[in-house]
Specification:
Length: about 140
């Protein structure tokens, strides 16, 4: 007896029958809307171009006068289909650059910032080339430091 027959017959003693629609988790994350839209557009363009090229091929075999215009259309469709596929790639790269990276400082970045702050504090405390030390100051002649 199949699972469907068991669920229709009452499950053979089971209390809960398995439904016809079972939700399964997605294997991959959903594409962003802009990327999905450009992918659908590219698939439609490629499908029309392949159909057009096939029709042009068969018209060429039969020697019809429509073969030449269809062949020109297939060449133009190939150029447009190439643009459509490049549009998917560019849209995907743009989306990844804008929204794809979560900006979280790594432990290395935190350590470097901490070291830079320490160096800045140390440089502020120590006299640099533009500052005079207290021993050479203008008030040392008067006994003040």
């Amino acid at each position: 007896m199949s699972r469907y027959e068991e669920s229709v017959a009452g499950g053979g003693g089971r209390s809960a029958a398995r439904g016809l629609w079972v939700e399964e988790p997605a294997r991959r994350r959903r594409m962003p809307d802009s990327v999905r839209a450009s992918a659908v557009r590219a698939v439609l363009i490629v499908a029309v171009t392949l159909t057009q090229a096939t029709v042009a091929f068969f018209l060429t075999l039969t020697g019809s006068w429509l073969a030449f215009p269809m062949a020109l259309g297939a060449v133009a469709g190939t150029i447009v289909a190439t643009w459509g596929v490049l549009d998917v790639w560019i849209t995907r790269q743009t989306w990844n650059q804008r929204y794809g990276v979560l900006s979280e400082p790594s432990s290395t970045a935190r350590r470097r910032r901490r070291e830079a702050r320490r160096e800045a504090r140390r440089a502020a405390r120590e006299p640099g080339p533009g500052r005079m030390s207290r021993e050479d100051g203008p008030l040392t002649a008067f006994g003040r430091r």
